[in-house]
Design a protein that fits this description.
With 322 residues, this protein is α/β, with parallel strands linked by helices. It folds into 2 domains: 3-219, NADH:ubiquinone oxidoreductase-like, 20kDa subunit (Rossmann fold, 3-Layer(aba) Sandwich), CATH 3.40.50.700; 222-322, Cytochrome-c3 hydrogenase, C-terminal domain (Cytochrome-c3 Hydrogenase, Chain A, domain 2). The chain is built from 11 helices and 9 strands.
């Protein structure tokens, strides 16, 4: 199967309540493995300064389930969160994997990287002789990896970890490594976005990326474009309070400037998403989240992001051509 057909099928399968994207990805991987002996994608996964929400979201992948992804798609060589080994044994595995698979493994970074005080605010491992900070680990492993994936908004852009006043000086991976970073943003990330990105890397290499280096397959259109309440927006019928059925632009919805396919991919086994649950989109995939989204229930033109973070204000008359 060619790259374009894979991307087209991924888009098609994202429409509809009972999405089978993950099943399709696994079937594709298995077919390629039989025909090309492609093997699995070697992955080193570092969890740095974050809330752990993205690995939890990843564990909620529905089909294939977690065990199927680990057995059929990726070879997880090291992970602070998932591996059984600890301490020195875990670090030995990490060093061996980085050495033997240099230029072949994919580095997944989950979480922001604190820069202040030489990165001491996030230590991912300790031995009798030293403490390995997130900054040291990423700067060591980043140049050795074939691909680098920033998983979640913290890893991609700083996110909540870098929110005001950012006392740890946290930044996204792109501010640490001088190389291409594939940003799979979200707080948390939808497991489909991550699983399909890994499958694309395994068989087709780097996917088409948007202006923020996110896979355009998932972030190429705004939430607003396919929102189920779009007709209310077009008629300028806006909700007055949470629970109203009209468009929630008046209640701070970030949909007009947020790239993500949440309205049709949805969450929790592909059955729900924030707007359907009567709460506005808070723009968790955005470069300036969360500061640029606050106060959450204030209309977009009135958000109080610092001047250097502000994006062009949206208005009820905007985005109608999307």
């Amino acid at each position: 199967m060619c790259k374009n057909e894979f991307n087209t099928r991924c888009r098609e399968l994202s429409f509809g309540q009972d999405s089978q994207l993950s099943k399709y990805v696994l079937d594709t991987v298995q077919a390629h493995g039989k025909s090309k002996s492609a093997g699995k994608l070697p992955v080193i996964w570092l969890e740095t300064c974050d809330s752990g929400d993205n690995n939890i979201a990843f564990m909620n992948t529905t089909y294939p389930y977690l065990g199927q992804v680990l057995s059929g798609l990726i070879d997880l060589l090291y992970s602070n969160a998932f591996m059984a080994a600890q301490g020195k044994a875990a670090l030995n595995i990490l060093e061996q994997a980085a050495t033997e698979l240099q230029g072949k493994f994919t580095l997944v970074v989950e979480g922001a990287i604190p820069l202040k005080d030489n990165g001491l605010y996030t230590v991912i491992a300790r031995t009798e002789n030293y403490s390995l900070t997130a900054l040291e680990a990423v700067t060591w492993l980043g140049p050795l990896a074939k691909y680098v994936v920033a998983l979640g908004t913290c890893a991609s852009f700083g996110g909540v970890s870098a929110a005001r006043p950012n006392v740890t000086g946290s930044v996204g991976v792109r501010n640490v490594l001088k190389r291409e970073i594939i940003n799979v943003s979200g707080c948390p990330v939808n497991p489909d976005w991550f699983v399909a990105t890994l499958a694309h890397l395994l068989h087709y290499g780097t996917p088409e990326l948007d202006s923020l280096n996110r896979p355009a397959l998932f972030y190429g259109n705004t939430v607003h474009r396919h929102c189920q309440r779009r007709s209310y927006f077009d008629r300028e019928q806006f909700a007055e309070k949470l629970g109203d059925q009209e468009c929630m632009f008046s209640l701070g919805c970030e949909g007009p400037r947020t790239g993500a396919d949440c309205p049709y991919r949805q969450w929790i086994n592909h059955v729900n998403w924030p707007v359907r649950a009567n709460t506005p989109c808070i723009g968790c995939t955005n470069e300036d989240f969360p500061d640029g989204s606050t106060p959450f229930f204030t209309p977009l033109p009135e958000k109080n992001a610092p001047s250097h973070e502000k994006q062009p204000p949206a208005s009820p008359g905007g985005d109608k051509d999307e």
